[in-house]
Amino acid sequence: GWVRSVRSQKEVLFLHINDGSSLESLQVVADPSLETRDLTFGSAVEVQGKLVKSPHRMQNMELKAETIRVVGPCDVWSFPLKMKERHPLEYIRQFPHLRCRSNTLSSLLRVRSEATAAIHSFFKENGYVHIHTPIITSNDCEGAGELFKIEVSLAGESREKDHFFDVPAFLTVSGQLHLEVMAGAFTHVFTFGPTFRAENSQSRRHLAEFYMVEAELSFTESLQDITQVMEDLLKTATSTVLSKCPHDVELFHKYVAPAQKVTNATGKCCNPFMLISYSEAVEILKQAAQTFTFKPEWGCDLQTEHEKYLVKHCGEVPLFVINYPYDLKPFYMRDNEDGPQHTVAAVDLLVPGIGELCGGSLREERLHFIESRLQRYLDLRKFGSVPHGGFGMGFERYLQYLLGVDNIKDVIPFPRFSHSCLL
Hints:
alpha+beta; 423 residues; disordered C terminus; BirA Bifunctional Protein, domain 2; five-stranded mixed sheet; CATH 2.40.50.140
């Protein structure tokens, strides 16, 4: 492992060694004669000895060293991370190639790993088929036009043909349309992979590359079926992470975001999520004493400031907002056929500190309804069409909610295009 602390006394040498598997380090007790000049904070070592019961209350075991070998020395004077110093995220962001060696980022990456496994486990245990949807695609699922285009650029060759394929190709913004294809053969499918948005923003909420959890459920005519899966997924994944990584999560709640604390299965995460309609949400916002930058009006999209207020108003618990105006949502969302305020069967899940975490809907399976909106997308409705719905959840935004991280760029393993990144 790597040395996290060195304390040399006249009769004994104490080391704390960490191998990355846990926030907790193993205490090594050795004879001072085993100390060498290269045995410093940050150095990689191999220690052999005997595990014995520790006399200290704070630890169960310690290692009585017989040999200590420095595998890789570390110059403590030039190493940007310092022993016994709690570096803020703003500082370690300057060292993307070294930041995973800090307690904060190593804890986050363990949480990320457990959350990934928990999400896959949830879908597997509930009968979902995992689909690898394409990363390179010719469709724009979201319709926002914020796509990364793929072009051929070979040195020394003419650029008469920029397209690698016969048609323009892009990095995917969503796997939903591909999942809908699979939902015509499997009743429950999901994907969990990278998605890309070419929105030129450096805000704390934006990533050009992020991971998306998406699912499609066939043979459902109820929006409640969708919200129940969303709720069960969030509770199961969160409960698993809190049980598997309690010290890692506690580090964030104690030192990084003390105001943001997600409780385990005995707390708020276990209680039923709240549910209101979009129309109810707008009325709550109109009656609020708070002044918003964007004035809440029926027919306008909810902004982040609105979403956070609604969660706070409802007791800081996850909140479903359903039945959005027809004109606000994409063509594929199911028409509620209501009036006079025309809505679709759509849902957003809002969570404390973040706002929107998941978005989903019933899909419009009725051919005659969708024919008037879009001529493409019809073959999926001609052959064995069934009522179905689905949702998507940004994984990095979930980690923000779970740990309370303010800047979304601090929850990804490798920040892109950093001048100091050597990878």
